[in-house]
Design goal:
Layout lengths: L8 E4 L6 E2 L1 H14 L7 H5 L6 H8 L5 H6 L1 H11 L5 E2 L3 H10 L3 E5 L4 H10 L9 E2 L12 H9 L7 E5 L2 H10 L3 E4 L17 E3 L20
Helix pairs in contact: 1-5
Amino acid sequence: MTSASFPAAVLFDLDGTLLDSAPDFVATANRMREARQMPPVDAEQLRAVVSKGSRAMLEVAFPQMAESERHALIPEFLGIYESLIGQHACLFDGIETMLAALEQAGARWGIVTNKPEYLARLIVPQLGWEQRCAVLIGGDTLAERKPHPLPLQVAAQRIGMAAASCVYVGDDERDIIAARAAGMPSVAALWGYRLEGDDPATWEASRICALPHELWQAAAWPTAHLASA
């Protein structure tokens, strides 16, 4: 552990954990719908599935289409999103203070997301994180993506830490599944995106936090084991 018992390293999911990216995705879906003479999407319904990925968001945006038709729209969806990325998104309240607290304690932090790496790398400089983020793994960086543990394991290796020395923070059940499979303590972030039936209490996370503000304090973090990779 680092000073004040913060973890030595923390890995974060991106969308729904660090970044409220739902407004960018809503704008993307609405541009697609407008091009097809359709009214705006239900923003709250789309927001709930952001962490599930582009297929889930397209299902909300175009429920009348067959799955194969929606799948064919993924390149268009991602292309429009790329053109809009960061225009409407913002950090969740309290995230910047939390990251500063980790850095002050000597902890390193990075991002492991299922978002394509090229898109994640577009948003990081907008947030001023190019020098602060120690590692970035996207959904297409490796042969596997979450809930497989490989992205978390590789991220830990790249910053020279054992998986058990890191903590992973995410807002989706697959984040917690991946962390558990990697032997990494986890935090379930309740401030993120969830469907109505999702129950984080059943995910078996090491800790559950309602707000980023809780993580300003070292005591809120689960125990990680001090070791190098």
